[in-house]
């Protein structure tokens, strides 16, 4: 009798465990680490996160395989072991692509079954050999109807492959995520919604880069949560994904740990949507949060938080910087939690200032 009871309890526990795993993640409090930032992996305070993305692995346009450059191999291969020293329960994902990757290479890879298979098989092999718990696609962005359709094929086949690999090896299934445009459509193109829902554990919604000095000649909130009278906001983007059919608990809201600096035409006209003459401070105007705080301190800049759009900015002389500070981050994380989103992610940890934004986000979400 005792043996039967023990067997029943074991079966029940195993069933509940499998049910938990099949229903996906409970929460994602994540951030990307960028190899290009040169921020030491060992310095990451991984206790502040549930997931970390290691960015970026490359797509070899000749072989259609995922690869890590020789300069990054040591850091990537030790990434999971390193961040788990401070947080043994954290899960890591290898992110592939990125904003500076060659979009045409992804389009070509996704266009044929054989090249998709090369990509998929190599990604799984690399993730396993480096000890990652999942894979993250950052293809920015499919730009034709055909490419969107091929993205759907890629995701469908990728999901089948990670399922098969898990079954055959006995390993826990690799997680699958993707960083996608802020809206469920990429301007006039529709994402393959049903495939995305069926294939991915979650979507990282890139709710930032709305305004920047390289593509807008006025100041603007780079990552506004709201933007009355426009469709350029994080809230609008999240609503498009939900209306398209993606459950809110598969959406992860993107937070920028950086901002953009413009040069004002008139130092006395320093609000949102003031005329500008291009980037300030850096060639592209982009600055990490730590750099922005240094600018504020060194120039006694005036700081402003606009609760209507949920965005911060500062100005000194003709230099104007739009960014997210603790007020914006706190409001956005509260929004994500209150609206049933799976969580949030940040780009990127190396841009934070002594973990100020990371701590504000983690504390706001709570345990």
UniProtKB/TrEMBL annotation:
PROSITE patterns: GH18_2 (PS51910). Residues 1-24 form the signal peptide. One of its GO terms (cellular component) is extracellular region. Pfam families: Glyco_hydro_18 (PF00704). SUPFAM superfamilies: (Trans)glycosidases, Chitinase insertion domain. The keyword Signal applies. GO terms for biological process: carbohydrate metabolic process; chitin catabolic process. CDD domains: GH18_plant_chitinase_class_V (cd02879). This is Chitotriosidase-1-like. It comes from Durio zibethinus. The gene is LOC111285576.
């Amino acid at each position: 009798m005792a043996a039967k009871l023990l067997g029943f309890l074991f079966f029940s526990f195993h069933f509940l465990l499998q049910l938990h795993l099949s229903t996906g993640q409970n929460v994602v409090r994540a951030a990307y680490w960028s190899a290009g930032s040169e921020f030491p992996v060992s310095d990451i305070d991984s206790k502040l996160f549930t997931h970390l993305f290691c960015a970026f692995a490359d797509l070899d346009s000749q072989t259609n395989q995922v690869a890590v450059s020789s300069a990054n191999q040591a850091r990537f291969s030790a990434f999971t072991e390193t961040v788990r020293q401070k947080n043994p329960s954290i899960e890591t994902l290898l992110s592939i692509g990125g904003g500076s990757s060659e979009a045409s290479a992804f389009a070509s890879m996704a266009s044929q079954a054989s090249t998709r298979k090369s990509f998929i098989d190599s990604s799984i092999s690399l993730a396993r050999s480096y000890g990652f718990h999942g894979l993250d696609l950052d293809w920015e962005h499919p730009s034709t109807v055909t490419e969107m359709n091929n993205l759907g094929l890629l995701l469908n086949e990728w999901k089948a492959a990670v399922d098969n690999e898990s079954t055959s090896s006995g390993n826990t299934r690799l997680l699958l995520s993707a960083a996608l445009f802020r809206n469920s459509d990429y301007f006039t193109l529709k994402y393959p919604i049903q495939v995305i829902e069926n294939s991915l554990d979650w979507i990282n919604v890139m709710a930032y880069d709305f305004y920047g000095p390289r593509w807008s000649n006025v100041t603007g909130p780079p990552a506004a949560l709201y933007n009355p009278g426009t469709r350029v906001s994080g809230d609008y983007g999240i609503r498009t994904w939900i209306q398209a059919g993606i459950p809110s608990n598969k959406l992860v809201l993107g937070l920028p740990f950086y901002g953009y600096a413009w040069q004002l035409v008139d130092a006395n006209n320093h609000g949102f949507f003031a005329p500008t003459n291009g980037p300030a401070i850096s060639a592209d105007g982009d600055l990490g949060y730590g750099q922005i705080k240094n600018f504020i301190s060194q120039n006694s800049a005036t700081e402003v938080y606009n609760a209507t759009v949920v965005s911060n900015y500062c100005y000194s002389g003709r230099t104007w910087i739009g960014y997210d500070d603790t007020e914006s981050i706190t409001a956005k994380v509260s929004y994500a939690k209150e609206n049933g989103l799976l969580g949030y992610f940040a780009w990127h940890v190396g841009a934070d200032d002594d973990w100020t934004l990371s701590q504000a986000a983690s504390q706001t979400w709570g345990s």
